[in-house]
Amino acid sequence: MLNYPLLDVRVSTPTLELRAATDELLDQLADLVRSGKTHADPAPYDDPMSFYETDPDLRVAKWLQAIWRGRGKVGPDAWRLYFVVMVDGRPVGEQSLAGVSFSTLGTVTTFSWLSTDLRGRGLGHEMREAILHLAFHGLGAKEAASDAFVDNLGSNAISQGLGYEPNGFDWATRQGEPALLNRWRLTRDRWEQRRRDDIQLHNIEACHALLPLS
User: Which part of the chain is the N-acetyltransferase domain (predicted)?
Assistant: First the structure.
């Protein structure tokens, strides 16, 4: 995008591509949100979450509004990059990366979801590896944090498999009910031990120009 180069950032692996979430790509991804392909059982999302909205059109509207708000907030305390996950040229999910006091702490967190019909194929693991490569190799992160409800077996397995270490527990609500979260922590040193050489970053200079990284 000529006037906002953060929307040209991409991360590619042999299996998938993360493309910055332009409105055009979000319009394509909205079909999955509208049809409920974000759902999982047990529910993986803490409150507030647009995906719990029962009206399909309102669900899409709230989801887009949240992304637009987050995409436009870029400051030293917090910023967030949103990506659409592409497999074989079609949008299949969402992956985001958030900086948490990044210029001071160098810490990031991640969030993702994948269409229900593509789960169980290792794509969630690949998405996380791609975004971690952007965080550590591309942006110089010092640490990545993640959390997942204790009954979210898939997300917890991905964190454990990628070298995250347990970092305690926390409480959150989902659909108004309290639920326990596992917290995870991945240091740069542990990421370096497992880093891959087949993940490519594209137009990364936009992040260094427009994000408060230091």
Answer: 16-187
